[in-house]
Design a protein that fits this description.
Blueprint (H helix, E strand, L loop, with lengths): L1 E2 L3 E6 L2 E16 L4 E14 L3 H7 L1 H5 L2
Antiparallel strand pairs: 1-2, 2-3, 3-4
Length: 66
């Protein structure tokens, strides 16, 4: 995981999630339960998977944000 106030990059079991924005701050991070709370203005979220076609077919991004 890497972050600053404009970009947050997370490695997940399904691939890499990049969050771009302004004044981003991590409010809470719970690795045991896989939960993250981010505060600030989010301009975009990008999910990159090793198997991008398979990820969209199986709805992995949808499961990531239940």
């Amino acid at each position: 995981m890497s972050f600053d106030d404009t970009n947050l990059i997370l490695k997940t079991v399904n691939g890499t999630l990049s969050v771009d924005g302004v004044d981003l701050h991590i409010q809470r991070l719970d690795l045991e339960n896989g939960e993250l709370a981010v505060e600030g203005t989010v301009n975009g979220m990008y999910f990159i998977s090793d198997n991008a076609g398979e990820a969209s077919k199986n709805g992995r991004l949808k499961r990531l944000f239940r």
